[in-house]
Amino acid sequence: xxxxxxxxxxxxxxxxxxxxxxxxxxxxxxxxxxxxxxxxxxxxxxxxxxxxxxxxxxxxxxxxxxxxxxxxxxxxxxxxxxxxxxxxxxxxxxxxxxxxxxxxxxxxxxxxxxxxxxxxxxxxxxxxxxxxxxxxxxxxxxxxxxxxxxxxxxxxxxxxxxxxxxxxxxxxxxxxxxxxxxxxxxxxxxxxxxxxxxxxxxxxxxxxxxxxxxxxxxxxxxxxxxxxxxxxxxxxxxxxxxxxxxxxxxxxxxxxxxxxxxxxxxxxxxxxxxxxxxxxxxxxxxxxxxxxxxxxxxxxxxxxxxxxxxxxxxxxxxxxxxxxxxxxxxxxxxxxxxxxxxxxxxxxxxxxxxxxxxxxxxxxxxxxxxxxxxxxxxxxxxxxxxxxxxxxxxxxxxxxxxxxxxxxxxxxxxxxxxxxxxxxxxxxxxxxxxxxxxxxxxxxxxxxxxxxxxxxxxxxxxxxxxxxxxxxxxxxxxxxxxxxxxxxxxxxxxxxxxxxxxxx
Length: 504
Ligand code: BES
Ligand code: MN
Ligand code: ZN
Description:
Layout: E1 2-6, E2 17-23, E3 27-28, H1 30-38, H2 42-49, E4 59-62, H3 65-68, E5 76-81, H4 91-106, E6 112-115, H5 127-142, E7 161-165, H6 171-196, H7 204-217, E8 221-226, H8 228-233, H9 237-243, E9 251-258, E10 268-278, H10 298-313, E11 318-328, E12 340-342, E13 348-350, H11 358-368, E14 376-381, H12 385-391, E15 396-399, H13 403-416, E16 420-422, H14 427-431, E17 440-441, H15 449-458, E18 466-470, E19 476-477, E20 483-484, H16 489-503
Parallel strand pairs: 1-7, 2-5, 2-6, 6-7, 10-11, 10-14, 13-17, 14-18, 15-16
Antiparallel strand pairs: 2-3, 4-5, 8-9, 9-11, 12-13, 15-18, 19-20
Bound molecules: ligand BES, manganese (II) ion (MN) and zinc ion.
Residues 278, 296, 353, 355-358, 382-386, 388, 443, 449, 472 line the site of ligand BES.
């Protein structure tokens, strides 16, 4: 799909379809008013007939426009209900409107369309955000994962270009929005594709191959792969313990993106949990929905997607992304409850549950990245079911001892509408991780599980500024709509866009 900006008014457009806003109580947008007067009130008469109430997300496709609106050159007009004219739309309502409009458009035989939906009013959001959210919503609605279906869906897929009308005053902003949104949408798609990939194909080696591919695609990227022998030399014994039950060896990919005007600039480090399957190990998970544990690499998938977007945008930053690939299975050689592991930073951990494996992989990855002397480190992980209990599926959990970093991430989440909510991290939680036999236990009891997981990680992040995103509830959807969401790619790219903005 191609997206462009146009400055031609509706009557001059020769497109296959115009997307035009209509409001409740038969109110027309200014483009609709213009078309209405060009056609001696044809649109008003349609609304009088009552076929379109203008409610949010309602659509009415007018075909064969030349017959009824002789002064309009476009072939079709899609009237799009946008609610009450005086109301400001929420971001979510706007995204719903765009999705519905796109679905109606895709069902027609139009190859091209021009959107005049920039006329609606969005709470506190100008032209930039309307284009940005529209492109993201269209790509979201279009996404399908059919790599493993022998018959692809028979969508006609004739639609090829969507143009967004922009006033000249907004041209710079809308052009930038288009650039940002396409990169973010590409990153989200890349993240979804790897995350949806089945665990017999997407194993730790597969993640490493994707990481190496990035270096081929971008001149700014170099990728290094750390294998199990190197992990052993580095004393990454917690990470290795988790991997021991699997026949698929662990690989940790280090994706080094360098494009800061000052090559010495400290990097922003992103670390993604990459459990390509988490059966729980000896502390085996129940059978129901265990297939969804292929998504336990959602952190790595999103970090990978972020790097795709960053490379496409050529952001003037230094960024290092780590995909901590691993598989957690029960086996005769698997690690056990009761085992005591010596982590890379020297702290010992008593394993009380082999299903709390993410923090064991991450603690060594987080120690490893100290060598980059990072400006900040952000880890992204489908870490705890407890986070889903706490926040549901709409907000990722955000934990950080650093208020400034926490605020920057919360702000980016709000801007990008890829929501995150901060959880507290105070000393008391640390006490839940006491072990009778080692420095730390790998679980902290029943209460506040998302936080005790964060508290566990905080023992390994003392030498830099750090934040943790628990995406257990947000990385994928279950049930009829089962599939990866590509979250939190938009949040993280927004954070990096803000960083690039403030630094230069
Ligand atoms: N990958 C899971 C977390 C998870 C569970 C994400 C369900 C999404 C849905 C993680 O490795 C895990 O198993 N965590 C345990 C921790 C517990 C043993 C302290 C959990 O949340 O149950
Ligand atoms: Mn687990
Ligand atoms: Zn897990």
